[in-house]
Amino acid sequence: MNKINSFKSDDIEIESTQRVFQGFFKIDLYRFNHALFAGGRSQTIQREIFERGHAVAVLPYDPKTRQVLLIEQIRIGALATKDNPWLLECIAGMADGSEDYPDVVRKEAKEEAGLELGELEFMLSYLSSPGGTTERLYLYLAQTDLSQVNVGGLYGLDEEGEDIKVHVMGVDEALARLASGEIDNAATVISLQWLALNEQRLQQQWNKE
User: Fold this and answer.
1) What is the total count of domains within the chain?
2) For the chain, N or C: smaller number of CB within 10 Å?
3) Catalytic annotation on 111?
4) Which residues contact 133 (CB under 8 A, 6 or more apart)?
């Protein structure tokens, strides 16, 4: 399939960048211009970009029982549009500059669910909101024995203000919660949809091993 993009990175001129906020997260002010579809160059554009680094997420999946593990925790940003800001999510975390994403995934699974992951299957990566942040998320599915999971167990790091509860449910139940709108955070939505598209292949692959 041929790419349809008209331009590439060389068609952007970064005039300047300036760090305008330095805290738990960072914000940079970009001034740039770019090539126009109609020809010529744009005027100088200013955009504040949220710099938080890249992140990983993993959906633990037991091919024998067709169950997945999700975690529940408070997300204050959801309060603006949801009555209940305690969300069902994939295990996730910031990469903190590491490019060994599988290693980060395994560390986060241990911290957030007390979980030892089996074989990892890279699903995809995506830009979370490229109009306002450079963040890219890397998603994995993990072949995992969920029979010994501490369902309802509480995890997370106190120093990071984490209060996490573990849930295990069937794939069909997770997809029903997705269809109802209960699950509505991007990484979890994408991961469950990817699993729905690829589960038959994974069942054939992993249940033969």
Assistant:
1) 2
2) N
3) no
4) 49, 50, 51, 52
